[in-house]
Design goal:
Isopropylmalate Dehydrogenase; binds 1,4-dihydronicotinamide adenine dinucleotide; manganese; 3-isopropylmalate dehydrogenase activity; magnesium; cytoplasm; Isopropylmalate_DH; 2 domains; binds magnesium ion
Length: 368
């Protein structure tokens, strides 16, 4: 039996509460013969309290050795005063940087049972299932020069620089096409090649990789402003959207909000494929934070965290049937009206975090 090594980093606030529900799911799959091995470590404020750092070198080494990291959430008012270098978020940034997690995948899935929670019309979003692939370690957030200077005339001048190299575009492009092959075989590449040199290069590289390696996948180029418009007008036309760091930041937030609550949104961050083993570093986390306002009260929606584990099943372990079954279990639980407060409809009785985890396990059992 193949073993899959998972490192669990629950973190702070509702992180441990939603991670506990994932552990139930992991346990269920393990009982069914899937070889999961789990370890748990500290990150964020809880690591700071124990070790005065937001992640220890030992935890980093465990993350490096794992097949996938499941990350809860970090931060909260308790750590507002800690030194900047060891603030809770630094632990997550260190993981992203040292594991080389350059590809951020954010699915936007609209479960039929929640279609009315969207700000768009039911028919526009019902059944929506798209993924935004955002380049995460390059582009205008990191390019040099980056400065804010005061000129001799007293004016100030600020500069940010968008930089992309061929290699950076190639690797994110391959992630997007590989993903599309496991889905509906369509990639939409988004940039502004009409006004930006990095956009011109982006389009060239994506077209070249497509022709050479993925000609069986459909490719379209969509200018980023039009892409934003199309996401709101007719999001179901898309399958996988690949884009740079800045446009991805914006487009992924648009796509996310088509589907409702922050408590529903999973994500994956992937690194480069090891040429020897074919494996890639990966970290899976909900989009939401540590929600200090509801922490410790059993109110958190665990579906974003559970869905993040579903992405690990799909993208790190190739367990596609298991991932489909988990998605189906989540959809059925939502359809049955078992929902935490953030997504409970009017007149519906909200249940607690643990009830949702239990219901999903029960549904997994029923589906098998
Ligand atoms: P947040 O995502 O923690 O919460 C925003 C709002 O959404 C809150 O009202 C919260 O109760 C609600 N919410 C979030 N997740 C939910 C869930 N699973 N179920 C039900 N309701 C949910 O963002 P906020 O309040 O801006 O930040 C709180 C703390 O989290 C801060 O310390 C922030 O730095 C940190 N944070 C950490 C992130 C991470 O670990 N990746 C990401 C974002 C924020
Ligand atoms: Mg953002």
């Amino acid at each position: 039996m193949a073993t899959h090594k998972l490192l669990l980093l629950p973190g702070d606030g509702i992180g441990p509460e939603v991670m506990r529900e994932v552990e139930k799911i992991v346990g269920w799959f393990r009982k069914r013969g899937v070889g999961f091995e789990t370890e748990t470590d500290l990150v964020g404020g809880s690591a700071y309290d124990a070790h005065k750092v937001s992640i220890t070198d030992a935890a980093m080494a465990r993350a490096d050795a794992a097949d996938a990291v499941l990350f809860g959430a970090v931060g909260g008012p308790k750590w507002d005063g800690v030194p900047y270098e060891v603030r809770p978020e630094a632990g997550l940034l260190r993981l992203r940087k040292e594991l080389g997690l350059f590809a951020n995948l954010r699915p936007a899935i609209c479960y039929p049972a929640l279609a009315d929670a969207s700000s768009l019309k039911r028919e526009v979003v019902e059944g929506l299932d798209i993924v935004i692939v955002r380049e995460l370690t390059g582009g205008v957030y990191f390019g040099e020069p980056k400065e804010l200077v005061t000129l001799e005339n007293g004016q100030q001048r600020a500069v940010d620089t968008q930089v992309y190299t061929t290699g950076e575009i190639e690797r994110i492009t391959r992630v997007a096409f590989d993903l599309a092959k496991k889905r509906r075989n369509k990639v939409s590449s988004s940039e502004k090649s009409n006004v930006m040199k990095t956009g011109v290069l982006w389009r060239q590289v994506v077209s070249r990789i497509h022709k050479a390696e993925f000609s069986d996948v459909a490719l379209e180029h969509v200018l980023a402003d039009n892409c934003a418009m199309q996401l709101v007008k007719n999001p179901k036309q898309f399958d996988v959207i690949v884009t740079d760091n800045l446009f991805g930041d914006i487009l992924s937030d648009i796509a996310a909000m088509l589907t409702g609550s922050l408590g529903m949104l999973p994500s994956a961050s992937l690194g480069a494929e090891d040429p020897q083993t074919g494996k890639r570093k990966a970290l899976y986390e909900p989009v939401h934070g540590s929600a200090p306002d509801i922490a410790g009260r059993g109110l958190a929606n665990p579906i974003a965290m559970i869905g993040s584990f579903g992405m690990a099943l799909r993208y790190s372990f190739g367990l596609l049937d298991e991932a489909d079954r988990l998605d189906k279990a989540i959809a059925n639980v939502l359809a049955a009206g078992i929902r935490t407060k953030d997504i409970a409809g009017p007149g519906m009785n909200a249940v607690g975090t643990q009830d949702v985890g239990d219901a999903i396990v029960k549904e997994l059992e029923a589906l098998s």
